[in-house]
């Protein structure tokens, strides 16, 4: 996609009055105006990650996850590298149990190997998190088992609570630490049926994102015991993550915890309504069905370029956003996008979703 295409798409989405997938876009001026009216900007800023909104955010996250401490990171990729390095050094085993669809394996350019000399042991080839039996059956020891909750590239799928407890127990029995890639952990608690603190208590370390689900500007946190926090601050510095000031991102993260975190359970419930309505579209496939989180995969029997073109035409003509970001799948003629149910979609009941899908299909070749 060219820069011109991205600008056209962004402009069309900003002008939409009806949005099925994703949050309502905000301009930089709107973000700044929202920050200006916040109590979080009344005091002094942070300095190299210490004080101000950054420290307040770290304390807030530690409280929510029930951990001794949490450390702010500018990116989740950096936080994950530190967590996996910590596990390898504490256990003396550089092998990490990773799903082949996990974020470090797919989206981080093999940073765990290039930066820390770690080695991946694939935990399963199934499009889900590994089972206890699969962990117990690994043919080589691992120092850390990383579990991505939800496993995004497999369809934002989650285990059941009992399955999660069992796989953690299997890792412990094998002498491994457990790290949670909780980029979207905020929205995973309804499916798991447990609080954030109960989920995090299963693991030795937990990473959470502030721009996914919560709508923050950027940033992440690594939470766990005080020993991990001390180590994380040292390695954050070594990775170049001690920016002079990070208060703008921290402020938007705090605002997300205030405004979006309490609404996520409603988004997850409504995602099931939206998914059921879209499942009735001719040729459509939903995965998982019902959704485990506020987001799910929608597959349609058209090439991705046709679907992206139809969505843009609908947005520009009717100021209605259906779903963008379509990608061709392994099955010829089928394409997939992730539908994310956020605030704007709460205004759409099942009948409205069905009507919107029908309007979208009028822009597709017959």
TrEMBL record:
InterPro entries for the chain: ArAA_b-elim_lyase/Thr_aldolase, PyrdxlP-dep_Trfase, PyrdxlP-dep_Trfase_major, PyrdxlP-dep_Trfase_small
Aromatic amino acid beta-eliminating lyase/threonine aldolase domain mapped to chain residues: 46-289
Swiss-Prot/TrEMBL cofactor(s): pyridoxal 5'-phosphate
Transmembrane segments: none
Record keywords, A-Z: Pyridoxal phosphate
Pfam name, any one: Beta_elim_lyase
Keyword Oxidoreductase (UniProt): no
Organism: Plantactinospora siamensis
Family per record: Belongs to the threonine aldolase family.
Protein name per Swiss-Prot or TrEMBL: Threonine aldolase family protein
Top-rank taxon, per record: Bacteria
